[in-house]
Amino acid sequence: MTTATTPRQPRYLLDNERVLAPLFMTPAVLYIIALVGFPFVLSIVLSLTDATVGNPTYDFVGLETFRRILFDDPVFRTALWNTFVFAVIANVLVVVLAKALAMVLVSDFRGKWFVRFLVLLPWTAPVSLATITWLWTLDSIFSPIDWVLRSVGLLDGNIIWLGKQNLAMSSVIAVHTWRIVPLAAVIMMAGLTSIPQEIRDASEVDGAGFWRKLFQITIPLMAPIIAVAALFGLILTITDMSVVFVLTRGGPTHGTQVLSTWAFFKGIEGGSLGQGAAIALFLFPVLVAVAALILRMARRREVL
Amino acid sequence: MAVVEVRGIRKMFGDVPAVDGVDLRTEEGEFLVLLGPSGCGKTTLLRMIAGLETPSDGEVFIGGESVNGLPPRIRKIAMVFQSYALYPHMTVFRNIAFPLKAEGLDRDEQREKVEWAAGLLDITRLLERRPRQLSGGERQRVALARALVREPDVFLLDEPLSNLDAKLRAAARDDLLEFQRRVATTTIYVTHDQVEAMGMGDRIAVMNHGKVHQFGTPEHVYNDPADTFVATFLGSPPMNLLHKGKYVVGFRPEQFLPESVANDGGATTGFTYHVNRVEYLGAERYLYGHVRGFDEETKVIAMLPVTVQVPITTDQDHRFAVASDKVRYFLTETGERVDPEMLQAPLRP
Amino acid sequence: MAQAVRTIEMERRSAKRRRVTGRFALYAIAASAGFLAAFPFLWAIITMFKEDQDLYVKANNPFWFNKAPTLEHVRFLLFDTNFLTFVRNTVIVGFAVVLVTLAISLPAAYALARLGMKWGERMGIGIFLVYLIPPTLLFIPLSRVVADLRLQESLWSLIIVYPTITIPISMWLLMGFFKSIPRDIEEQAMVDGYSRIGAVTRTVVPLVFPGIVAVVVFAFTLSAHEFIYALTFNKASAVKTIATGVPTELVRGDVFFWQSLQAAAVLVAVPIALAFNFFLDKFITGFTMGAVKG
Asked: Which of A55, A58, B231, C26 could join B225 via S-S bond, C-beta 3.0 to 4.6 A?
């Protein structure tokens, strides 16, 4: 009896789940395929060609582009190393600071709403504008940090935060950490509040002190969500170019260049599409690994 | 008003049949109860009648016409969900008027009908409230009013009383039944509560594992269960079943009486009953034990009304009996009931 | 006896002391975290009202108005720069992105949450993964796509591309909200005489309104946040958004108009942060709802 499953009249088609579901999904899927899937493939194609903006003929050169950026481009190697240093240091800082911040933000105190607003400001403000305020804060002459150091007698003249290789790198790392800590703290807050009250009560009754509770109960129970926060932070540090772009533009002399900014300068400003795409794609295997890790962690913890 | 009929209806969820070939037909204005344990397919059957679920096979007729493939809105039905599914963002008035709006009635007609339905269910004073401000009983009435207002051909009710507390439930049962009698609309009522089923249904369809085991009046289903499932699902405590070779002997706890009391003229079937424990429940005594000559593991319960004063001592054998015409026999293999005449050998212990 | 009483009294006192220390530490950390987080903005707020002669004197206390505060630089920002154009562009892009995002993600989220598709869950995860693909990976090929579509140097490029970021996350968010609405509600509406789409728009959509608001805020703030695509596609001042216009355009040659720059950062960042902050709880609930009931 096949009539049982098929609507008899076309005007009832939209009541049928089997018609409605694909209909509802299609626009989203098409959109994503057209503007994420296709560009991604195009990015791979570009990286295998020597295309430039002036000559977008897509001549296939195989892995030549990759060979060139790896061996003939010292800036690329600096950028790769910087990206690595940058991601690792920033994320260690992010995890530690975000954990502390999350623990503060879940407790009750007066003015909590306002503190939360202030603390989230670095993340919720548009990144380029937030970085602009730092650009001024780290100004080579009028930095208020220098002024304070001068007033207490620790400094003579100026530090020139963004003018020297190591200082510039530290500044970039600090600003990034400053920006991502709030997000990581929010993720961890969700983890903290999900620890059952009974467990916290039990440890209280058992007479565990603050540090014992922290290291033997909170941190082990939160380990997966800490990992999720760290991995999100990792993705953000590896891929974001706004901070470097606004703060140092990769300088001084490529000292703070990271892969994403270098891809931009090469591919967009320099017009070497193929090379830019290859540099950007270098991030992809790392990202896949990180995303896979996130998913595994999240599934196990059932947070996503 | 209409007759609802399902023919050979089946619903598969993956490889699992939720409803496995059901044929049923209501009478005009009948109160039909689908009774069964949770997961027996009764709600799925109701949802297929409503058009919320597409049958894998078989046909649904409402008022003599096949409604297969028609969405719920065309079927002239009203449904009350277990949760009442009141629209939380609308007032009671707008909740009740919602189906009327779908029909395109103008404002005055809507108001008139909402007030009529609200009056019938005595909820006129609640019209401007929101669902979350209502008690469970009031919500149920609102849901009924919303069902009533379109004057449907059929009411479909999915465990509408299960969210009420026990006290409220008895009163709501009366109200619901009185209301159904008054509007005399064919009603299909899903429940897992045998008390509701027995008390409300004109006829009961007892379901398990997607199949209808028996379909009949409450008396019929209770007294002459079609098989051992129906026998044990209905009645509290359930029918005692004693296994003996190819057959199962069954009798209701309230028919199982001391021999001196049971003998009121007709033929009786006697048993030696070893009583382990006695429970006083005020209006009756429950005896727990087993019957000699049958498996000792098979618990047998007797329910003596307070009018039976015979003293019963525990850990002792007593002579008990059941009026012979109240004993039921089933096949061990299939669980189906068989006529006593068909028995190959007398089962007198 | 007296001994025991004293011990308990001592315990009580030390417990109190510890509690007081704990509270003190809590407030100290909260206050310093707030200060550190907000510090550059605080300084920006002071800067934006300063006279040049006050600001550009190295010896002057930068946290103090050595000359009377002035609104001149805010006026300069608003009327003598393209700032208002950037604001207008951002608002236009924001609204358009919100519309595209809702139009596409609402039905898709509903389909994923409700319409029993076997591959629904896998698809949901797949779409969430799309969110993890960063703009840095796609801006080069997208610059080609945008150029081929002749959309560069126009707001359309951003309106078309931003939804690739907002749709995945909005779908995930809305899916959680949809799942939190009992199925009974829309089935009831279907029995009450509405078509499936009618039932959803009349009963479910009003009930997920908080989720829709969250999506609106998210999509809108993204348009103000996004930097890389905006930088890549649009180079002309007339089609820049706040995020790219402020850091690249409010500089004349080598001259930084620091007060005006800081004013722009503060005027935009603070309201956006407020809106975001206000809806943060909604985002979190949405995400966990998608998870718990998934």
From this structure: B231
Closest-approach residue (CA) in chain A for B72: A15
State pLDDT tens for residues B17-60: 999 999 999 999 999 999 999 889 999 999 999 998 889 999 99
| Closest Cβ–Cβ partner in B69, B71, B74 for A3 | B69
One-letter amino acid of B285? R
CATH 3.40.50.300 is held by the domain C72-292: no
Question: Where do the domains of chain B lie, and which CATH numbers do they carry?
Answer: 4-223 (3.40.50.300), 237-342 (2.40.50.140)
In chain C, domain spans: 2-55, 72-292
Going from the N-terminus, what domains does chain A have, and what CATH number goes with each? 74-301 (1.10.3720.10)
Is B87 an 8 Å CB contact of chain C? yes
Q: Residue A21 has which token pair? A: 């579901």
- Confidence band, pLDDT 50/70/90 cuts, at residue C235: confident
- B56, B57, B71 member nearest A12 (Cβ): B71
Number of B to C CB contacts under 8 A, please give it: 59
**C contacts of B85 (beta carbons < 8 Å):** 182, 184-185, 187-188
Maximum CA extent, chain A: 93
Give the predicted TM-score (pTM) of the model.
0.80
For B266, the token pair is 């007709």
Distance from CA of B206 to the nearest CA of A (A): 25
Shortest CA gap C70–chain A (Å):
19
The predicted-structure confidence for B312-327, as pLDDT tens digits, reads as follows 889 999 999 998 888 9
Q: At what angle do helices A165-193 and A74-106 cross, to 10 degrees?
A: 40
What is the Cβ-side half-sphere exposure of residue A33, based on CA atoms within 13 angstroms? 7
One-letter amino acid at B231 equals A
3-state DSSP call for residue C228?
helix
* Rounded Cα gap, residues A171 and A248, in angstroms: 10
